[in-house]
Amino acid sequence: MAEPKVRDFIHFGLYSALGGVWRGRQYAGNYSEQIQSDAHIPEEQYAKLASQFDPEKWDPDAVVQLAQDAGMKFIVLTSKHHDGFNMFHTRLSTYNVVDATPYRRDIVKGLADACARHHMPFGVYYSTIDWHFGDVPSKRNDNPISAAHEDFNASQLKELMTNYGPISEIWFDMGHPTPLQSKHFADTVHALQPECMISGRIWNNEGDFMEMADDEIPDYILDEPWESPASIYKETWGYRSWLKRTDLEGKIQEHILRLVAVVSRGGNYILNIGPRGDGSVVEFEADVLRGTGEWLKRNGEAIYDTQPQPFRKLDFGHATVKAGRLFLFVEHVPANGRLELPGLENHIRKAYILGDPAQRLLRVDDTKDRKAILAPDWPRKEFLPVIVAEFDSKLNVLPPATAPGPDGTIQLTPETADRFYNANGEGYYDPPTLRKEQWHFAVERPGTYRIELIYKPGKFARLLDVNVGGRTFKANLYGSEQGPASIGSIELPVAKDTTLTVNRAAPAERGASLPVELDRVSLVFSGRQQ
Length: 530
Known about the structure:
This protein has eight helices and 27 strands. It is of the alpha/beta class. α5 (about 145-165) packs parallel to α6 (about 180-190).
């Protein structure tokens, strides 16, 4: 996935003119960009809004400049949301910003050109459901896509990939396409723009990166490209006129913290604004972006072009990595004043505050078994100071490892696992599915270990690959049988950190609600090496 880390999302459309209000009533049951569904507005009445949509205050160059002031490295604009109103001049429907409004200018084209002038990568959001198309049973977010609608979408994708210069990313959303339909959309995009990245909400694992749920941040590092979409307010993405906009400093700090949490786990953060119907950017939202940008001017070195933190968890905040340097984001200082770096094996050469012109050195506890920075008093008044810890050699951090029991058996339970989910399955309302569990454990006695899987029976079988010590063991657990299942033995040497990974294949039948569930994995010591 591209490296920008910080992205600008813009939800702008016909819904912006309503601002979350229909016939004097404020609608808060859903996001304001979905007010047509929330307020049950008849299609013919909603479509008439186009004749009044005239965003004369929309200034593409100013929008790009704001994104740059905020430290954003990418812009994604809604080309069409679920309401089906096109913010680009599509030839497939007159329900677009050029043919149906007094504005008569292509919004997507204007912003794409401004991005090109400012050397800003440009992307588009595209909803694969279209309430205006006329073939959906209800105005939901997970409607199936008919063959005619599929062809319409593919034709519009060709327009977007042909008429607007380089499209760096297309942010698909919603719908419940079949696997073949998802592939059709992905192939259409890549045939015309091979370098264009496709979001996971194209579904059926056809995307180039995984999209988290709205405003979701995973608990630990994921092992694939991913992004966290966030809006300045969790209540809405499109403009909501009556939303209370208070505590600017608190809102700036909220999004800096969320940005740091995402980047420290290896993801990209795409932060949304919702312009008014006249095209102007809400001043509070602009100030939030600028405030985030001011922090990034001081600390961007710890965000851009970095790798995720090597620690499973830090009790004081988060971290990122560059060659020879750890960046430590100090959200709060522990009572003992020590910023512990658990599992770090490297020698810490020196530590200092990022951006300190005097580069005053901080005290370091650098013993063999414990590494810590002693936090100074003077930066504590600053919001989220960043400490740089320079280290020798290739970074080596040992994760928390499960120790053997008295009999040498190593018990690996779901509570101690890192659990990796697929968040971009078949459709918007599909729950994330567990695809992998991973454990770290210590081996204190060399010898032969028998691998046993203890599991709860379910309705369907589950195929598993168990990777440990450089070997892969196959397991087929049948729902009608009760564990444990012994799947093989392996010779293991003494080691502080050994990894065991369970990769899960799909259930044997679609729609399986009760696939077998692992209770634990046991490595049973069965003999000393000869």
